[in-house]
Design a protein that fits this description.
30% of the residues lie in helices and 23% in strands. By secondary structure, the chain is an alpha+beta fold. Strand 1 and strand 2 form a beta hairpin. The protein is globular and about 90 Å long.
Length: 616
């Protein structure tokens, strides 16, 4: 802040007064032509100030909206003269009378656009430095700057609108689940580390030095224990913590709508979840959604979309061609474990430069390149690979993809995991690029029957696809040890517009089955007892069949608000490096604090090297 502005602010500060007995009568969004003639008291921030010589106009903002107030020398000379000090973001209270705006000066885009308040008295409640960016929706400040000054960013109307939506959703959730007989129960934040999945955030214990708590990745074990306790229906809007690599829809701390039910099947849990979504959309969004949601097995999702959270708002399904090109003259196709393709209708207009950019895009998912064919005519196929394809191969490709003149086809060949990931994500990327996704459309579906296990190439073993407390499908119990790659889970994910917004499963409620699961995961009896003994023993005391689901509240609000990042719907989020630019967290702590915890920090290798005495 320049010395001139600083001096001006200090000069203005002497005019700050207390509210005294002034009481706000209205918000800055509710006055209309029906209020003309009323005497009102408004309070808020100066959004804009315009001095028109005689009259001074101020747009006064509070969390509800804007009202134009007018300082006139003809109405209140003293109040008008004092208004010369007003600057952006000064906090004021005004008293005045509501009147019509002059003819031709109304603002149809503003709820209060027909009226203005002519001021006869006002108070300066606080001054403000010049904000580092404009407190308005059309703000071109970078995200890092906005996060550094987050409390100012949150003043912007678009941000406040997001949190009004978040509040309404949370209240609707509580109302609905209470009506369904659920109890809201809080579970511990300081709990036991169970390192199976994402990394835990660890908290050292002062009273038990050398031991650590973990912040919960979810309330999974505790909500199962509540079912053992006979609560039957539990929910919680709960904070969770995972130390994982971040992206636009992840944060190290996030919020779940968590629920669990006893004596239920998958259908029971999914029905409650569908009805909850229906209520949220009806009460909060003013939209009707149809239930029940469509269902798709995991195998079907991977076959047709390449991902386990398919966006069904548009077509462009993946089509397998492995058998059709086996032994092809194009060597890459000839022996590949899997060959798939997608068709982009009318995509012939894509330039070579754009195709090269798409090739770079699929490399993110392990692809070495991207084969393509432009259908120029019934007989002319423009492509580097067309000359290697026989007439029979062309016929099958044309028929399976229903390829027509003007279309472009994209191919991937290789291991199924890579082929599906590359083409599945390319499908969405192309749909966004070519504006193929309908606006204001909400497509829900359930993806069911997930694999029970997935193979971890780094650890050279199978790990739980969801978590180790997920029940296998009927008839798949023995597959856990004999054929884990084909064992399927009683798991289900709710998908909205290509985003997983909720996931859950029917849990293992038998101690015997739970022990078989630990064996399948390679746990020794000692390790199973050490990490999960308290749950295992609880299952020995008449645990009822139970299952549940957790919604990612932040991601759900992001989709409802039409935002691109969950950081826009979390009040004080972290960056992609898990730092808070506003508070400068994480930060170092004092040696005294470390000694209290019995901790000593190791120097980073580069610092130890710097500290070494250099040879003469």
């Amino acid at each position: 802040m320049s010395e001139q502005i600083q001096d001006l602010q200090q000069e203005h500060s002497k005019y700050i007064v207390d509210l005294g007995d002034w009481k706000r009568t209205s918000s800055c969004s509710e006055l209309t032509a029906a209020d003309v003639g009323r005497e009102v008291c408004l309070m808020g921030w100066v959004q804009f100030r315009r001095d028109h010589g005689g009259l001074i106009f101020v747009d006064l903002r509070d969390r509800m909206g804007l009202t134009q107030v007018v300082f006139s020398p003809d109405v209140a000379p003293e109040a008008h003269d004092r208004a010369a000090i007003l600057r952006l973001e000064y906090v004021i209270a005004i008293k005045g009378r509501v009147r019509h705006r002059p003819e031709g000066m109304t603002n149809p885009n503003l709820k209060t656009g027909e009226i203005e308040v002519v001021v006869y008295d006002w108070k300066l409640l606080n001054t403000s430095k010049t904000p580092p960016f404009a407190i308005e929706d059309r703000c071109d400040a970078g995200e890092n700057l906005r996060l550094q000054w987050r409390y100012l960013d949150l003043r912007r109307p678009c941000m406040q609108k997001n949190f009004v939506l978040r509040h309404k959703v949370m209240q609707a959730v509580r109302s609905f689940l209470d009506g369904e007989g659920f109890y809201e129960v809080e579970t511990p934040v300081l709990t036991k580390s169970t390192p199976e999945g994402a990394r835990d955030f660890l908290v050292p214990s002062r009273l038990n030095q050398g031991s650590f708590y973990a912040l919960p990745q979810s309330p999974q074990l505790f909500k199962q224990l509540l079912m053992v306790s006979g609560f039957e229906k539990y929910f919680q809007i709960v904070r969770c913590f995972r130390d994982e690599d971040l992206r636009a829809d992840r944060q190290p701390e996030f919020t779940q709508i968590d629920l669990e039910m006893s004596f239920v099947s998958e259908q029971d849990v999914m029905t409650v979840a569908e009805n909850l979504m229906q209520k949220l959309f009806r009460d909060v969004m003013g939209k009707e959604i149809q239930v029940p949601f469509p269902r798709m097995t995991w195998d079907e999702a991977m076959r047709d979309y390449g991902v386990d959270k398919p966006d069904t708002r548009f077509g462009m399904k993946l089509v397998e061609l492995t058998d059709a090109v086996r032994g092809s003259g194009f060597k890459l196709f000839a022996s590949a474990p899997m060959v798939k393709a997608i068709k982009v209708e009318g995509g012939e207009s894509l330039t070579r430069k754009e195709i090269d950019a798409l090739t770079e895009f699929v490399r993110i998912y392990g692809a070495q390149g991207l084969a393509w064919i432009k259908i120029k005519s019934e007989t002319e196929w423009q492509s580097p690979i067309a000359k290697f394809l026989s007439e029979e191969e062309r016929r099958v490709i044309r028929e399976r993809l229903d390829a027509k003149v003007g279309d472009i086809l994209f191919f991937q060949a290789g291991e199924p995991e890579m082929v599906n990931a590359a083409l599945g994500n390319l499908r969405v990327h192309l749909a966004e690029k070519l504006n193929l996704i309908p606006k204001d459309s909400f497509n829900f579906l359930w993806v069911i029957e997930f694999p029970l296990f997935e193979y971890d190439k780094e650890e050279h073993r199978y790990v739980a696809c969801h978590h180790p407390f997920t029940s296998p499908l009927p008839g798949h119990l023995e597959l856990m040890t004999s054929d884990p790659a084909h064992a399927k889970a009683r798991a289900y994910d709710m998908v909205l517009n290509g985003n997983e917004v909720g996931g859950g499963s029917i849990r293992i409620h038998s101690a015997h089955t739970q022990m078989k699961m630990f064996e399948a995961l390679g746990f020794s009896d000692e390790r199973a007892e050490e990490q999960f003994g308290f749950l295992f023993h609880a299952l020995e005391f008449g645990a009822p069949p139970h299952g549940g689901l957790a919604f990612g509240l932040d991601r759900l609000i992001m989709l409802l608000a039409g935002c691109q990042s969950i950081r826009d719907v979390i009040a004080f989020p972290k960056t992609q490096k898990a730092t808070c630019l506003m508070t400068q967290a994480p930060s170092t702590v004092s040696g005294a604090q470390l000694r209290e915890l019995g901790l000593k920090l190791r120097e980073a290798p580069e610092k130890r090297a710097e500290a070494q005495p250099k040879a003469e």
